[in-house]
Request: fold
Amino acid sequence: MSASRASAPGPSIQPIRRIGPRTFDFSRQVAVMAIVNRTPDSFYDKGSTFALDAAVAAAHRALADGADWVDVGGAKFAPGPPIPVEEEIARVVPVIEALRGSGAVISVDTFHAAVAEAAIAAGAHVINDTTGIHDPRMAEVVAASDATIVVTHSLAEPRTAYPAPRYGDVVTEVVDFLRSRVDRALQAGVPAERIVVDPGHDLNKNTVHSLELTRRLSEITALGHPTLVALSNKDFIGESIARDRGDRVEGSIAAAVYCVLQGARIVRVHNVRQTVDAMRMIETIAGWREPAVLRHNMAADEVRETRHG
Reply:
């Protein structure tokens, strides 16, 4: 099948990526990253996966629902008292160990270089740093491994408030920030083919800022690195459609689809099955993949099923 000319181009910097056990062709594929938080105060699930067995079970459910990737968090981004590094390690490492051999990409959401070191040693394939390499040693840790790093835009010191953020042009400023932090990673020795960027929707941004980032996401994807969007159930979606946190699935999927059509290639989500279906539908419409089944109005000798990895 030929790719649709209406579809946004994938990343120009090494679109075919080997990340842990998986190979992605981001010129024609969207990876779905499932969120699993081992925190008692998580934004969406309010601690329902804080217990180790609950976190591991949630990860396996996400994989059964089609997730390509599991993102494990032991400390949330939002303001709050510091989580000791040893405690954060104790939260994330057992989940990583339980997922080894699952065939999924495993990432850890952390801004501590020491947590990243422990996570990589335990088998994590990606470090998802929501502070945009606030700690320069983070880039050194990743450079010394085979791991990929997600460079995210945010402005606040880790776990601190940043009230009423102001930007002249939020998209231009986010692009400039990401470019400078990518340069930091490159200078530390992280290869360009192991860098992903994330504009950081709602991170030190209000709803107007996040909507502008979504509207102009092609300016982020133009950096050339695979772009991750973490939109799932966020407040800019809730404020846009007047929905509470538990009732934002449809809005989240609509925002994810909009971003993919502008070149985003990784979507970080809570509601895995629904998002997987939406992403596979985009891929099929665009001609990037065959339909899973061809039966409707087909001759008997033309009926077929296609296996997708």
User: Anything to note?
Assistant: Residues 1-5 have pLDDT under 50 and may be disordered. The longest strand covers residues 31-37. The chain has one domain: 16-305. Residues 170-188 form the longest helix (19 residues).
